[in-house]
Inverse folding.
């Protein structure tokens, strides 16, 4: 098993990398800027006994997507995880360039990574088949009014990607599935300008707290495993009941 995790060096992606390493996947971890986090996560994965390389490339550029897949080589799994909310606020108060950047990263790049995943893993294209996991968000079905409607709309596009692509490539040996995390304790919230979001929103979730990265990673690990061999075209919500 050899799996690419985009955004696999911090937050949810890093937890996914550690979980997949424990399951015996050799790994390629993509990231954008944070070399120190990449080094740390890769070392943690290697300590679990697998091969792990990192690729620094911006997935919002065509060259970046190409670079990551060229470095990855033959793959049996792709976790399409890189993403960010970038900004919090009502749509009318969100600058147009932020709306574009949010859709570009969370939807267009996810589509291009999925496209490259099919080229890398599709049996009719010389691959050996595999699993693509798209990381969506509970926002896709909640709409996130007042916070980031544009991000929610992009993630709803990711859910449509999972549904459609799964049917398109089912007979090419690829399962396409999604996870939709609710509020998870990572720095994504602080990076978007709201460091208190986990503490504020977590207690309002039915399970009474924000989720941990490992709880999302375990869902991804199961979806990638043979235990989920009849699961495709669906998105599993990991959102504490919300
Ligand atoms: P995070 O902690 O901010 O980590 C994001 C990862 O993506 C980092 O490895 C980052 O690289 C990488 N990345 C960001 N922009 C990139 C780009 N342009 N090109 C390549 N890599 C890029 O985020 P997270 O909270 O773990 O979120 C992971 C995924 O889960 C995202 O798709 C997010 O939308 C989704 N999600 C998160 C939550 C939540 O509450 N945390 C909830 C629902 C869905 P650097 O380290 O180099 O910046």
């Amino acid at each position: 098993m050899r799996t690419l995790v985009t955004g696999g060096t911090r937050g949810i992606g890093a937890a996914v990398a550690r979980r997949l390493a424990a399951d015996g996947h050799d790994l390629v971890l993509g990231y954008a800027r944070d070399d120190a986090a990449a080094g740390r996560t890769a070392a943690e994965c290697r300590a679990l006994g697998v091969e792990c390389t990192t690729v620094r490339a911006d997935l919002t550029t065509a060259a970046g997507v190409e670079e990551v897949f060229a470095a990855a080589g033959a793959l049996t799994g792709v976790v399409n995880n890189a993403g960010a909310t970038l900004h919090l606020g009502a749509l009318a108060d969100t600058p147009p360039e932020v709306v574009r950047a949010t859709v570009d990263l969370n939807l267009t790049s996810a589509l291009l990574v999925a496209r490259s995943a099919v080229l890398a893993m599709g049996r009719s294209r010389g691959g050996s088949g595999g699993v693509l996991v798209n990381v969506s968000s509970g926002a896709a079905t909640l709409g996130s009014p007042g916070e980031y409607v544009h991000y929610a709309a992009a993630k709803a596009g990711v859910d449509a990607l999972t549904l459609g692509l799964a049917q398109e490539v089912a007979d090419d040996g690829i399962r396409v599935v999604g996870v939709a995390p609710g509020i998870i304790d990572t720095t994504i919230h602080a990076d978007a300008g709201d460091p208190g979001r986990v503490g504020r929103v977590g207690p309002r979730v039915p399970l009474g707290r924000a989720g941990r990265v490992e709880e999302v990673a375990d869902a991804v690990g199961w979806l990638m495993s043979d235990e989920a061999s009849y699961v495709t075209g669906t998105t599993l919500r990991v959102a504490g009941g919300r």
About this structure: Residues 2-238 form a domain with the Rossmann fold fold (CATH 3.40.50.720). The first strand starts at residue 2 and ends at 5.
